[in-house]
Write a structure and sequence with these properties.
Strand content: under 5%
Mean pLDDT: 93
Distance between the termini: 61 Å
Order of helices and strands: HHH
Structural class: mainly alpha
Helix content: over 70%
Radius of gyration: 19 Å
Low-confidence stretches: none
């Protein structure tokens, strides 16, 4: 069985790009949820717990939307 190296490399690059896109999408959803919870006056500790974003990121999101 012959392996097409060029196709294998292209497939790997596309797969990696997809995964990065998915990870960026997940991060964006976490940030949107954090902002909603901030607007609902949830305690920051609970927002950190719910979104798995760090405290500094939550504070940054909060400060960006004051």
């Amino acid at each position: 069985m012959k392996i097409n190296k060029s196709k294998a490399i292209t497939d790997a690059v596309i797969s990696t790009a997809r995964m990065q896109g998915i990870e960026q999408g997940i991060e964006e959803v976490k940030r949107k949820v954090a902002l909603r919870l901030i607007k609902m006056n949830f305690p920051i500790e609970k927002i950190v717990e719910a979104t798995e974003l760090d405290f500094e990121t939550i504070k940054k999101i909060e400060n960006e939307h004051k």
